[in-house]
Automatic annotation (TrEMBL):
Native source species: Desulfobulbus oligotrophicus
Family: Belongs to the IspF family.
GO biological process, one term: isopentenyl diphosphate biosynthetic process, methylerythritol 4-phosphate pathway
Statement: the UniProt record of this protein carries the keyword Lyase: yes
Site entry: Transition state stabilizer: H35, T134
Reaction equation(s) it catalyzes: 4-CDP-2-C-methyl-D-erythritol 2-phosphate = 2-C-methyl-D-erythritol 2,4-cyclic diphosphate + CMP
Name of protein: 2-C-methyl-D-erythritol 2,4-cyclodiphosphate synthase
Protein's job: Involved in the biosynthesis of isopentenyl diphosphate (IPP) and dimethylallyl diphosphate (DMAPP), two major building blocks of isoprenoid compounds. Catalyzes the conversion of 4-diphosphocytidyl-2-C-methyl-D-erythritol 2-phosphate (CDP-ME2P) to 2-C-methyl-D-erythritol 2,4-cyclodiphosphate (ME-CPP) with a corresponding release of cytidine 5-monophosphate (CMP).
Entry binding sites for a divalent metal cation: D9, H11, H43
Keywords: Isoprene biosynthesis, Lyase, Metal-binding
Binding site for 4-CDP-2-C-methyl-D-erythritol 2-phosphate: 9-11, 35-36, 57-59, 62-66, 133-136, 143
Quaternary structure note: Homotrimer.
Regions annotated as coiled coil: none
Protein's gene: ispF
């Protein structure tokens, strides 16, 4: 049986933090506020994968009340989620991710994000689609107050032919 999952995450932009998106350190004067590295793209993908498994969300597995996750690289959390996928006998068929961000421009970083996620999820890069859009200066994202990401994934049984 195939399984579909959707994930969403948003974090506030603040001064004094690195901007990490899709595991890529992006040169920018602000970063995302959060308990971990606040990588909204990795968090949205993680939530989509957990949703497809029917396993709750990233906060249930890696709570912000646990000091072990303070500042943690979200790609490490994604790798742990991939272990759950393996244990349940599934493979990631594909992921489609949208980053909603007014600034900075993300096109130069998308391929590196794709490579990071493909490595963590043990798939070919073509299985991971990442795109970025703005809100045309509307709302909190348009005002530069935060960044959001949506992800949709399809899991298929590991024993099934490709």
């Amino acid at each position: 049986m195939i399984k579909i999952g959707h994930g969403f995450d948003v974090h506030r932009l603040v001064v004094g933090r690195k901007l990490i998106l899709g595991g890529v350190d992006i040169a920018y004067e602000q970063g995302l506020d959060g308990h971990s590295d606040a990588d909204v793209v990795a968090h949205a993908l993680s939530d989509a994968l957990l949703g497809a498994l029917g396993a709750g969300d990233i906060g249930r597995h890696f709570p912000d009340t646990d000091p072990r996750y303070r500042g943690i690289d979200s790609l490490l959390l994604l790798a742990e989620i991939q272990q759950l996928i393996d244990q349940q006998g599934y493979l990631l068929s594909n992921a489609d991710i949208t980053i909603v961000c007014q600034q900075p421009k993300l096109a130069p970083y998308l391929e590196a994000m794709q490579s990071n996620f493909a490595h963590c999820c043990r798939v070919q890069p073509q299985a991971i689609n990442i795109k970025a859009t703005t809100t045309e200066h509307l709302g909190y994202i348009g005002r530069g107050e935060g960044i959001a990401a949506h992800a949709v994934v399809l899991l298929r049984p590991a024993y099934e032919n490709k």
